[in-house]
Amino acid sequence: MKADYTKRQGQFLAYIHQYCVLNGCAPAEADMQRFVQVTPPSVHQMVLTLERRGFIRRVPGQARSITLIVPPESLPQLKRS
């Protein structure tokens, strides 16, 4: 099955999944920023892009509300930036 997301988007999705598995809740944008080592606006833009493309669902204004929509088995292996 061909991924409909870019390599970078796949890494964000894999991180969200792994974080949820390990911590029992979704990551905050600050958690993603620290892991991927990009600016806060870049993380926020990626979250909006992932939501717009239908890969995640979230509740705007509610912390840690990201839900992964894509099947975890379709995600790439997580790599540290």
Structure write-up:
The protein has 81 residues and is mainly alpha-helical. Helix content is 47%, strand content 5%. The protein has helices at residues 7-23, 29-36, 40-52; strands at 56-57, 67-68. Strands 1-2 form a two-stranded antiparallel sheet. α2 (29-36) packs across α3. The N and C termini lie far apart (25 Å).
Any key phrases for this structure?
single chain; 81 residues; mainly alpha; two-stranded antiparallel ribbon; globular
Write the layout of secondary structure elements.
Blueprint: H1 7-23, H2 29-36, H3 40-52, E1 56-57, E2 67-68
Antiparallel strand pairs: 1-2
Helix pairs in contact: 2-3
Can I get a quick summary?
This protein has 81 residues and is mainly alpha-helical.
Q: Give the structural class.
A: mainly alpha
Element pattern in H and E: HHHEE
Distance between the termini: 25 Å
The global form is globular
Widest sheet: strand ordering: 1-2
Average pLDDT for all residues: 93
Strand percentage: under 5%
Number of helices: 3
The low-confidence runs, each spanning 5 or more residues with pLDDT under 50, are none
